[in-house]
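Kindly review these tokens for lecture notes.

. . .
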Amino acid sequence: MSFQTASCSCGKLRIQVEGDPQGVGVCHCFACQRRTGSVFAALASYAAPFKVSGVATEYVRVGDQGARFIYRFCPVCGTTVFHTEEGDDESVSVAVGAFADAGFPPPQVSVYDSRRHSWVRLPADVTAFSKDPV
């Protein structure tokens, strides 16, 4: 099994995941825009197990449909590295940029596409959802 490691900017918070991502997506919701300081968040979902090294600060956000998401970021440099959904220990979502891999697979889905900035272009085969389809 192959392993990949994602890291914050200063390297003090890392997560090691196994295998290929279960899915890659982008989220254009305003919460993700604010959280990342960008116009969307790019995330890759992985099945457990995963291994975290370093100390993370946590921020809990309640999604539009009531799910509670626990975001982990580095207390030194502030980089958001990964998040989980409260009560779901079987998967983790990792910030694609934290892998620092220009060859990372492209997104398959785009959520909150209704909030996508007009100048952002996605690959033609991306499935877009106006809001969160869950």
In short: Helices lie at 30-36. The chain has a mean pLDDT of 95.
